[in-house]
Amino acid sequence: MELEYIFGTLNGSETLRVKGPSHTELSGFQQVAQESPGETVTDRFRVVRRLKSAEDTAGHCYDWYEIDRHYRTVDKTPGVSARVDKLAPGVEAAAVAFCLMAEAGQIDAATAGERAELFSPWAPGVDYKTGQLRRREGALYRCLQGHRSQEGWEPENVPNLWKLAHDHAERWPEWSQPICAGDEYGQGAEVTHAGDHWISDVDGNVWEPGVYGWSRAENE
User: Fold this and answer.
1) Domains, the chain, with CATH or none
2) If you write DSSP's letter for every residue of 32-89 in order, what string do you get?
């Protein structure tokens, strides 16, 4: 039996009820992703304290917690699974889904740029479509209109065909909220948020700078 997470309120405070085959021990910052047909809901929160625990006659265990700093994101990407199977058999689905979402505008350019290695490099002799993202010399470009590429039409040379989406050479890009698997910040990642520079202390960092998992750096 998988754990079941139900969020609610009690006396003006946010609460979480966890149901499972055994009692849970939650503390500190947590992340929970729950999938259903058509969407994935991810909740990020901090456990304040355990409120109570109980069991029923069927052997299910329940634990109630008071929580705060609760953030919820909903990822709705219809048709991605089918497109992944068709476009890239054998390739990790999360990576392909990330690229598809970025090209559809569901992931901002700064976030896409942090995973530029997932996108194919620009090449001549390729039929590109409007909206596609391709990397070249550390930068990520978005196709502005469909065309067949050729030598001399490198993205940086044809602003009517390609637009710079993200330049990896920028040391302190603006922070953006991770929204799907593979989108998290790695340890040592450098970002700008609320006018300050921040460095990630941990891998898989989904938290907002100033909340958890980041250290403020000296502004340069």
Assistant:
1) 4-75 (no CATH), 80-167 (2.10.10.20), 184-220 (no CATH)
2) EEEEETTEEEEEEEEEEEEEEEEE-TTS-EEEEEEEEEEEEEEE--TTHHHHHHHH-T
